[in-house]
Amino acid sequence: MAFSANLNVMMKTARKVGRQLLKDFTEVEQLQVSAKGPGDFVSRADRRAEETIRAELKIARPSYGFLGEEGGAQEGEDPTRRWIVDPLDGTTNFLHGLPHWAVSIALEHKGTIVAGVIHDPVKDETFHAERGEGAWLNGSRIRVSGRRRMIESIFATGVPFAGMTSLPAALRDLARLMPECAGVRRFGAASLDMAYVAAGRYEGYWEREIHAWDIAAGMVIIAEAGGFTAPVVPGGNPLDGGGIIAANSAMNDAFTAIIRAGG
What we know:
The chain is of the alpha+beta class and about 260 residues long. The chain folds into two domains: about 5-140, Fructose-1,6-Bisphosphatase, Chain A, domain 1, CATH 3.30.540.10; about 150-260, 3-Layer(aba) Sandwich (D-Maltodextrin-Binding Protein, domain 2). It is built from seven helices and 15 strands. It has helices spanning about 5-25, 45-60, 90-95, 165-175, 190-200, 210-225, 250-260, and strands spanning about 35, 40-45, 65-70, 70-75, 80-90, 100-110, 110-120, 125-130, 135, 140, 155, 185, 205, 230, 245. An eight-stranded mixed β-sheet has the order 4-3-5-6-7-8-9-10, sandwiched between helices. Strands 12-11-13-15-14 form a five-stranded mixed β-sheet, sandwiched between helices.
């Protein structure tokens, strides 16, 4: 299948950085790690990955802006377009030798995410989508799950760690949801949680404290796979850090109601 020039750049960059990170992953015990805060760490590999992504995208699209987890925001000459990047989503998994992490690259145009790539180097899975072109995994079309009953459904979330103020609300979410469903998973990489919703592996995902770079690519991939995303608080914007709910079409209303019941 043919991809747009932008998506080709995104996929090429994600895979290049994925190969770089895989090499570091095999030597994870030797990485120099510095603390960013309680339970949240950044490695030399993480910083170098973002530098590589920034450089590759700058060469291809020098006028676009950039928002990255490590380097922050950089305005471009074109104020309508920017890359939103998480060079290593699942850093804590990575540093503990857990093979569940990803590279996430999204393209935003006039406030809307128009393309996204989530690349899992360990499993060699690349999820991607563009507006109006469907969602794909390694060249095969993907769709959200068709399950229609809560009791048969599996959901994913990110349980807040030390220092995060949303822990009490997240625990209340779990107390309301878990008796109604087949299970809840907490795997530690928001981008892959969203990719798995798009691929029908989960029926839904939510998180109350989340950053734009964690979810931007997943938003367009889920939409193109036939799913829905919404803010936890009605009227909010997930890209502004207000939390996100994502689900297949059948579970969306019931799942959203359970999560929003906690405010």
